[in-house]
Design a protein that fits this description.
CATH superfamily: Glycoside hydrolase/deacetylase
Radius of gyration: 21 Å
Mean pLDDT: 91
Helix content: 40-55%
Number of strands: 8
Strand content: 5-15%
Low-confidence stretches: 1-10, 326-331
Number of helices: 13
Largest sheet: 6 strands, parallel
Order of helices and strands: HHEHEHEHHEHEEHHEHEHHH
Shape: globular
Distance between the termini: 55 Å
Number of domains: 1
CATH class: Alpha Beta
């Protein structure tokens, strides 16, 4: 068959069997860095140290076995439960023993948008104590800071002064480009697990994976629209039972989309992360930062299902936790 006839035949097959033809195509070449917030664990104050160790061992074991070069971001306030400090530090050390990295998420998960700049700076410094020590024991340095709530400053001057402060302390900021809001699902998942409601657990997992898939679709397209290509993405998840038990499914979703897993350092080496960024306001991802800086606004971003939002707020009310922010506000 000559080349022209071959192209015609392929076109005809694609027209007649579009789904099969698409499945036969190789996935695009993509890359992503995995980052995990709120170590040693989300809501770890409500868990025993043994629960935190078990959760951590399961999560880092999956990352280690699948050779995922993740960074975990620490809130050191969560170490100081009476009688449990050593075990909670052991949980952090598991990350390093499994070839992963630790970063600073401030001592008490403090928002730069909600406290004076000096207070936030003090919280950054206070959040370094144990983390720097553990990294040094593994001949590593503390390199990255992740803003709690993704709040980078309530005005541009505050943001720039904070950035200069972080640079002087040797930090690079860890942006986020993809976030499936697993933290909202995680509390409901824990509650369902404690009550033995396996049907609700599975419903939550299915919804979370469906929502995460929609997030991947949306930000891949948004990246192409803004930059003409898909730069290395940076995914935000949290250290919770949901991820400990199901992060493998998230990693499988990414592999099927053609992603390879890269370090945060490699992801940040892409020029897109040096793009002009003058965003200020409520915390959101960096693709929104870049779009708004360019005078554009991303429309119709995927929203967490209303039943999840309402269930989460009901549970938070029962636990006397402040209600979940609007679903338009990214963590």
């Amino acid at each position: 068959m000559n080349p022209i006839a071959g192209k015609i035949a392929i076109s005809l097959l694609a027209a007649v069997f579009p789904s099969a033809f698409l499945l036969a195509q190789a996935p695009p070449h993509r890359s992503i860095a995995i980052t995990v917030d709120d170590l040693p664990a989300v809501s770890s104050g409500y868990m025993s140290a043994q629960d935190v160790l078990t959760l951590t061992a399961k999560l880092v074991g999956i990352l280690h076995d699948q050779k995922i070069p993740a960074v975990g971001f620490v809130n050191e306030v969560k170490l100081y439960n009476t009688g449990e400090v050593d075990d909670r530090i052991r949980a952090l050390n598991l990350w390093l023993e499994n070839g992963l990295e630790l970063g600073n998420h401030t001592f008490a998960h403090t928002s730069l948008n909600r406290v004076p700049l000096q207070t936030w700076q003090e919280d950054v410094v206070r959040g370094e104590t144990v983390t720097r020590m553990l990294l040094a024991q593994h001949k590593m340095e503390l390199r990255y800071l992740r803003h709690p709530f993704l709040d980078t400053g309530r005005d541009l001057q505050t943001r720039r002064v904070a950035e200069a402060f972080l640079s002087l302390r040797g930090y690079k900021i860890a942006p986020v480009t993809m976030d499936g809001w697993d933290w909202m699902y995680a509390g409901l998942y824990d509650d369902a697990k404690q009550r033995g409601d396996s049907a609700l657990q599975q419903r939550l997992v299915d919804s979370y994976l469906e929502h995460t898939t929609a997030i991947f679709d949306f930000y891949e397209k948004a990246s192409n629209d803004l930059f003409g290509y898909e730069p290395p993405q940076i995914l935000l998840v949290h250290c919770n039972r949901l991820q400990a038990e199901h992060i493998g499914e998230v990693l499988d979703l990414l592999r099927k989309r053609g992603y390879r897993f890269v370090s945060l350092e490699e992801a940040l080496s892409d020029g897109v992360y040096s793009s002009p960024d003058e965003y200020v306001g409520e915390g959101t991802g960096w693709i929104e930062h870049w779009a708004i800086t360019r005078g554009r606004h991303l429309q119709n971003s995927p929203q967490v299902p209303q039943w999840v939002l309402e269930s989460s707020n009901k549970l938070r009310q029962q636990l006397a936790i402040p209600p979940t922010p609007s679903p338009d506000w990214s963590r």
